[in-house]
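Batch 3, record 17
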Amino acid sequence: NAGVTQTPKFQVLKTGQSMTLQCAQDMNHNSMYWYRQDPGMGLRLIYYSASEGTTDKGEVPNGYNVSRLNKREFSLRLESAAPSQTSVYFCASSIYFSNQPQHFGDGTRLSIL
Amino acid sequence: TQLLEQSPQFLSIQEGENLTVYCNSSSVFSSLQWYRQEPGEGPVLLVTVVTGGEVKKLKRLTFQFGDARKDSSLHITAAQPGDTGLYLCAGVVGGSEKLVFGKGMKLTVNP
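Prediction for the assembled complex:
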């Protein structure tokens, strides 16, 4: 049982480049999330999808877009990467949106030069 | 303004010592979760507390939810090197549905 799978695990980009972070879950969960984790800042919610077909902004959505491709997959896109987006990105899922434990992937470590 | 304040932020102790981590807020939470994160991995859920005053035990870990549901604590008895990691509390504020994370407490247990 893979749980939540994120690809790639590591990526280095130049300022202005674009890329898409992929996330897939095999637990038949309805809700999916994207977080970034920075030293001293904790986990901050970027975007979430409470259910298939819906997406909403979290705490720090600027510079990002998301797509809920189907129930399993939720991607995060950086259209024009900036050094401030250097971070570790985590995808998570939960059976429903509210008050439910979240299951996390192992993260994507992204550096933007 | 941080909705959830965790203290201490860092702790380095010797194997066998006891410790307590605190998670405090001025808001009332409908539920509160504790996660542990090891280096290079994502957070993993340890426990969820829902009822004010609730106490849950997970081997050497004891979790308590405050009576007013504004705070929680995690007590570890006889810490072991395998307890090393980042401990995160996360809560759902009543009226909102989003989970909000504290900044975490980084624990190092030395052999």
